[in-house]
Structures are given as structure tokens and as C-alpha cells.
Design a protein that fits this description.
By secondary structure, the chain is mainly alpha-helical. The chain folds into 2 domains: 145 residues; 80 residues, Herpes Virus-1. The protein has 8 helices and 3 strands; from the N terminus they run H-H-H-H-H-H-E-E-H-E-H. Strand 1 and strand 2 form a beta hairpin. Bound molecules: zinc ion (ZN). The site of zinc ion has 7 residues, from loops. One of its GO terms (cellular component) is nucleus.
Length: 311
């Protein structure tokens, strides 16, 4: 908080106005507003007894949950941006040292999201208990009793334990890997140092680097208007998948996801444009083109256009 010397606080400086107490300074009010925007105020959680019949208790808890969910979606947007920054660094120089810092930001964002998810879980538990007739004589301390052990447990985990099975981290690592490698990305544990408690779970399932495929499973060429199914997570070119859903509907068949082995039945409302994926597909095409050009420069033969990225 900025320290501000005003005439009110310096009685020598002015003749009259000295009655405003520092407590109600505008800075303090401003700060309260900021905290409120995050959906987490003392007022939401003032010490008081609440039960199912307490006026607005459940709606208020719900509002808080919704605000936390909004924060989570902002964090997820941030994760995308951090990933893109790392990709750009890796593209400028393989294993660029600053990538470590960017990766740390990525971890921090994952942690924040996890902690918020826990808070939401605790609020959900409290709401369910209220509905079941439970009364909380001190909602704030009940909340803390429920949430602090969960948070402490999570924060005490090693990086490897926290992120080894994280889909986002696997995606982060694969995206970085493919900038300078054409082989499959190794399992992510290779980037996650082992903590003291990790010995025993060495053989656990480890999310392998998934090689992202930028070809639409329907058109078999690189994505155009990359679109993701919320049901199964598979990706397609936008027009191709919408056509598929339309023609299935016309012939009264279920619109099955065209990815081999996937049994999801899709509706148009399950489809969402995925500009971040499209951007990566475009970058992939650009890098492929650059590699090709480099190869051709080494050759004396006439370059034969291989324009698979021009679809
Ligand atoms: Zn699918």
C-alpha cells in the first residue's frame, strides 16, 4: 500500500481539516473492493452460525463458488499463454534457459487452479451438509478445518507427484518437444525431479508425451478451424466434423466420433472451436516448411513443391 502523507495526517501543514481518521482512507476501501472481486471476502465468510434456513446462506456460497470458477477459467487462459511463450522460446533456441522460468509459472498456475478446485470442493461439501440439515456454528473455522488439510497435503507433494499425471503438463512438454524433435516425446517424468517420497511410485502410470497429431481424422490433412469435442476431447477440422454430424442426423444415425476406438456420440453443442490448437497446427506447418526449406538448400536439385501444409 502506498504511503500517503496528506494534510489530514500532518496537522502542521493545514489549518483546519484533521478529523478524517486514517482507517477510512480511500486506499483501504479500494483494497477491499479488489479482494471482493476475487470472490473471497471476510464478509462472505464472517463468523456466524448458518444452517439451511439461514437467509441466503446457500446462494451466497454458490456465488462464491461461481466466482472461483471464473478465476479458474482465467487461470486456464493463462496456462495457454504461458505454453505459447515457452514454445516461442524453444523455437528461438533449443532448450532456451528462460524456459525454466516459464515452466515455473506454468507450475504455479497449475497449483493455483488445484487449490481453487479444492476450495470449490469444500464449499460443495458444506452446501451438501447444509442441505442435509447440518448447522455450522462457525462457518469460517469449519471451512478452514475442511480445507487446510487438503491444501497442506497438496502443497507438500513433490513436483513429480503433483504434475506427473497432469494432462496439461504432458501437453506443455509435448508441445515444446515437437518444436525441435520429430520423434515421440518421452514420458514427462524425465523433466520432474524426484522428491523424497517418490521412490515407491516409480513404476506408476506416467503420462507419456503424446505426439500431437495436427491432421483432421476426417479430412486427413492439417486442421482448418480446429475444433474439439467436449465429450471425448478429440479434435477435427470444424467444417468436416459439423458436416459429419449433420449428415448423421439426416440419415438418423448417431453421429459417432470418427476417431478409431472412440465411441462418443456427438452433437453440435459438444463441438467447440479450439483456436489455440489451430495456432499450434499453423506453427507446426510453418516449422515443417522451414525444415523442408533447409533441407532443400543443402540440395542442388530443383525444389519440388511439397505443399501438404497448404491445405
Ligand atoms: Zn472421440
Amino acid at each position: 500500500m502506498p504511503i500517503r502523507i496528506t494534510s489530514e495526517e500532518a496537522p502542521e501543514a493545514g489549518p483546519s481539516r484533521r478529523s478524517v481518521p486514517a482507517r477510512s482512507s480511500p486506499e483501504l476501501d479500494g483494497e477491499d473492493d479488489m479482494i471482493e472481486e476475487e470472490g473471497w471476502t471476510k464478509e462472505t465468510f464472517e463468523n456466524r452460525s448458518i444452517s439451511k434456513s439461514t437467509h441466503s446462506a446457500i446462494p451466497q456460497l454458490r456465488t462464491t463458488m461461481d466466482k472461483l470458477k471464473e478465476v479458474i477459467s482465467r487461470i486456464e487462459e493463462g496456462l495457454e499463454i504461458v505454453k505459447e511463450t515457452a514454445i516461442a522460446l524453444e523455437d528461438s533456441q533449443q532448450d532456451e534457459p528462460a524456459i525454466d522460468e516459464v515452466e515455473n509459472s506454468f507450475f504455479k498456475a497449475l497449483d493455483q487452479r488445484e487449490l481453487l478446485t479444492m476450495k470449490i470442493g469444500v464449499l460443495e461439501d458444506i452446501i451438501n451438509q447444509l442441505r442435509a440439515g447440518e448447522e455450522y456454528s462457525n462457518i469460517e473455522s469449519s471451512y478452514e478445518q475442511l480445507s487446510i488439510p487438503r491444501e497442506t497435503e497438496y502443497l507438500g507433494k513433490s513436483k513429480r507427484a503433483k504434475y506427473k499425471n497432469s494432462k496439461e503438463y504432458a501437453d506443455f512438454r509435448s508441445a515444446l518437444w515437437e518444436v525441435n524433435h520429430s520423434t515421440a516425446c518421452p514420458p514427462v517424468s524425465q523433466w520432474l525431479e524426484k522428491g523424497p517420497d517418490d521412490e515407491s511410485d516409480d513404476d506408476d502410470f506416467d503420462v507419456g508425451g503424446v505426439t500431437q497429431n495436427y491432421r483432421c481424422p476426417i479430412t486427413l490433412v492439417l486442421f482448418e478451424d480446429a475444433t474439439t469435442s467436449n465429450k471425448c476431447g478429440h479434435n477435427y477440422s470444424g467444417e468436416a466434423i459439423r458436416d459429419l454430424v449433420d449428415s448423421a442426423r439426416k440419415s438418423r444415425r448417431p453421429a459417432k466420433c470418427p476417431v478409431t476406438g472412440c465411441s462418443a456420440v456427438l452433437d453440435k453443442t459438444d463441438l467447440k472451436a479450439n483456436p489455440a490448437l489451430q495456432k499450434r497446427a499453423d506453427e507446426f506447418a510453418r516449422r515443417e516448411k522451414r525444415r523442408e526449406d533447409e533441407r532443400e538448400e543443402g540440395d542442388d536439385t530443383i525444389a519440388i513443391e511439397d505443399d501438404e501444409e497448404d491445405y
